[in-house]
Every structure is written in structure tokens, then in C-alpha cells.
Amino acid sequence: MARVNRSELTKLEIIRYATKKMLETGYTNTQVRAIAKELNMSPGNLTFHYRTKEDMLAELVELLCGFQWKMMEEEAKEGYSSIMAVCLELAAMASMCEEDEVARDFYLSAYSSPKCLAIIRKNDTARAKEVYKEYCPNWTDENFEVAEILVAGIEYSTLNTSGVTVALETRIAGAMNSILSIFNVPEEIRKKTIDRVLSKDFRKLGRRVLNEFKQYVEDTNEQALMDLLKG
């Protein structure tokens, strides 16, 4: 196994602290200079590895996409790439954003960043091809990519709770129904899936996601985490 070099170790040190900081105080309140100071390095050294704060966020989003999806698959208990897991993921994120201002800031910052949004769409498009292939047998890659542009907009609107008075369950159900309709999922399956999601404790699941992700980044050994960062 190849050893992790000094430069890679520095990146890991930065990303571990950035994860902790962004998930405890929010992306907006996290400052590059503060991260550099905490890690006893110059701002120039930090920006050599991550040119901007957005670059750090993009790294976290890439890691979180895989981690979060694995959690949802395990919770859905339906095997690889299930519709249930897709809907649980949205419900968990929406509940986090309603309950926790820091989580809302983190997710909305990710969806508002062109670089991070491209990562989200890339991951979601690859997943959608597996999840919905039964319902979209003649779709091209472009069809899925266009669909995910619409899906990302629905997700952002669902996560953005500012000034919203509609009950969380109602917003989640409406968003899930719209997303599944985009991919031609039959009404009976849509209704059954939505009812099952709303019957679960998705709020508890939401609380677990970022806490367990933060611990995961902290505990994963250097080589394994470096492999993940390299994709």
C-alpha cells in the first residue's frame, strides 16, 4: 500500500478540521484564516492546498454524498439503489434543515455553490440511472442530466425553510411526489413509498447524518480517507 505523503497529510489535516468547523458553526461562519490559525499554518500554506473556502466545501460534499447515500440504503433495507433510499435522503436532509440552523447553512451553501452543485448533480445522475432505469428504459444520459437539474431545484426549495409555514411532512411529501413523477414512477408506487418514508423516524435519521459523518472523517485512517478524496 502506498504511503500518504506530507502534502497529502496536510490536506487531510485541513479537511478534517474544516469538517469539524463547518458542521459545528456553519459554512458561512467558517473563515479560512481561522482554520489556518487553528492548524498553526500560514493562510498561504492553506490556500496552496485549497484555494478557496468553496474548494474545501466541495471536498466535503464529495465525501458526504457517498457517506449519506450508504446510510440511506442501510436504513431503507431494500438493497442497492432503491427509491425508498432516495426519498429517505430528502426527508432526512429536510428535517435537518428545519431543526438545525447550522445544517441548513451547510446544505444551502452547497446547493448555492456552482462547484458543489455540479458534484451533487453528478452523483445524483449516476444514482438515478440505477434507481429509475425500470421506469425510464429509453432515457439517454442527457435525459437524466436534465432531470437532475429539475430535481436539484426541488431539493433546494425543500431544504430552504426561510419564511415557510407549510408543515415539514407536507413539504416532503410534495417534493418526493414531484421528483418521482419526473422519473415516471407510477402513482401507486409513489404513494406507497411516500407513506413508508413518513411513517419512519426520519428526523432521528437526519440528526444522525452529520454527526456520524463528522466522526467518520475524524476516525477514518489517512490512507482510506485519501483514497476517498481522490475518488
What topology does this entry show?
Layout: H1 6-25, H2 32-38, H3 43-49, H4 53-76, H5 83-99, H6 101-112, H7 114-131, H8 141-159, H9 168-182, H10 187-199, H11 202-219, H12 222-229
Helix pairs in contact: 1-4, 1-11, 2-3, 4-5, 4-7, 5-6, 5-9, 5-10, 5-11, 7-8, 8-9, 9-10
Largest sheet: none
Tally of structural domains? 1
Helical fraction equals over 70%
SS-derived structural category = mainly alpha
What is the overall shape? globular
Gyration radius from CA atoms, angstroms: 18 Å
The number of helical elements comes to 12
Please indicate the percent range of residues in DSSP E strands (runs of 2 or more).
under 5%
Number of strands: 0
Domain HTH tetR-type: 8-68
GO molecular function, one term: DNA binding
Keywords: DNA-binding
DNA-binding region: 31-50
What descriptors fit this protein?
DNA-binding, mainly alpha, Homeodomain-like_sf, DNA binding, Bacterial regulatory proteins tetR family, 231 residues
What's the short version?
The chain is mainly alpha-helical and 231 residues long.
